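Input (structure):
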């Protein structure tokens, strides 16, 4: 049984097959291939796009989706093996996964890291424990990676640029008042390097480098795909001749769980906002972001409203790629 936990577990050919299926579904969205099928969508954190697109996508394929918010409208869940459950959680993932596997054909989970201890969070143990106990395929709806977002991004780039190999892809850290999850940034490196892009990670200083498991994977994928991977702190160097600027803000990992200390770094980097002047350095480059995005904090109105901004295309493509993922995991074809 195959899960969709990380694109690192899927070959480029498999991912490309998902993108082709998603493109077909975009042309012809309504089907009955998943009639009688269901997906449980467990959200431990808020969502607009992911929740809407999975629910709607399953309905467009003839199935149904059930949204659960453990700790709000469903019992709180304990994920640690061997836990003595004297805290808030009323049931263990072993039973939750077992029960949902009896009812549903797929389970999706959003579980952001806890922002306390990165050596713990970097293991992605919450979704892995769900996958261990589930007897149906599990889909990652964002943990320390966001693989559905990755596919939507790559689908969008291919729609606008055709062949993406050796195009300059810049992942830029951008300003935000709080230290955020690194998931989308990790994911952007993975997918761009897997598809052979020349990837530049732009961040203010070394403390904002991403976890080595993702930077190392990006280097490895770049070698395999004929692309490249490098990092810089020089804004002008990064933006110059970029074909794609992808923005995300994230917290400095050496200060993980210490937002006050992290702020002492972060407060110096408001100028990393994506603006028209920086975008003018690019090779008529595209701009995108996973959304949600704080306007005039992460990117200016001018950037968000420009023709080169494809963030809405990327958000729409979440719907199409997730339908492809659900179909593929359930062995359905068009
Ligand atoms: N990009 C994304 O996952 O959006 P939501 O947090 O709204 O689901």
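Output (sequence):
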């Amino acid at each position: 049984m195959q899960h969709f936990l990380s694109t690192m577990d899927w070959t480029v050919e498999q991912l490309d097959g998902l993108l082709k299926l998603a493109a077909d579904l975009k042309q012809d969205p309504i089907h009955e291939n998943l009639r009688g099928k269901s997906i449980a969508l467990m959200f431990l954190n808020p969502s607009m796009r992911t929740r809407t697109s999975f629910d709607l996508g399953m309905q467009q394929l003839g199935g149904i989706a059930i949204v659960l918010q453990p700790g709000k409208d469903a019992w709180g869940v304990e994920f640690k093996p061997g836990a003595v459950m004297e805290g808030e959680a009323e049931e263990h993932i072993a039973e939750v996964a077992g029960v949902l596997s009896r009812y549903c054909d797929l389970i999706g989970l959003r579980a952001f890291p806890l922002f306390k201890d990165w050596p713990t969070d970097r293991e992605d143990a919450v979704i892995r424990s769900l996958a261990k106990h589930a007897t149906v395929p599990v889909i990652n709806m964002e943990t320390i990676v966001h693989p559905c977002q990755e596919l939507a991004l790559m689908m969008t780039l291919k729609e606008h640029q055709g062949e993406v190999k050796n195009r300059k892809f810049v992942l830029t850290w951008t300003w935000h008042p709080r230290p955020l999850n690194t998931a989308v940034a990790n994911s952007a490196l993975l997918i761009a390097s897997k598809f052979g892009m020349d990837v530049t990670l732009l961040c203010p200083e070394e403390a904002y480098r991403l976890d080595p498991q993702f930077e190392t994977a990006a280097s490895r994928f770049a070698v395999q795909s004929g692309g490249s991977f490098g990092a810089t702190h020089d804004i002008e160097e990064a933006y110059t001749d970029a074909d794609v600027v992808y923005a995300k803000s994230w917290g400095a990992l050496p200060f993980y769980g210490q937002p006050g200390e992290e702020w002492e770094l972060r407060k110096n980097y408001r100028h990393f906002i994506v603006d028209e002047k920086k975008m003018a350095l690019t090779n008529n480059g595209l701009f995108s972001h996973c959304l949600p995005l704080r306007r005039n904090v992460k990117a200016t109105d001018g950037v968000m409203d420009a023709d080169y901004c494809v963030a809405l295309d990327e958000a729409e493509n979440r719907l199409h790629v997730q339908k492809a993922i659900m179909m593929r995991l359930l062995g359905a074809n068009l």
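Notes: The radius of gyration is 20 Å. The domain at 7-145+318-329 is CATH 3.40.50.1370 (Rossmann fold).
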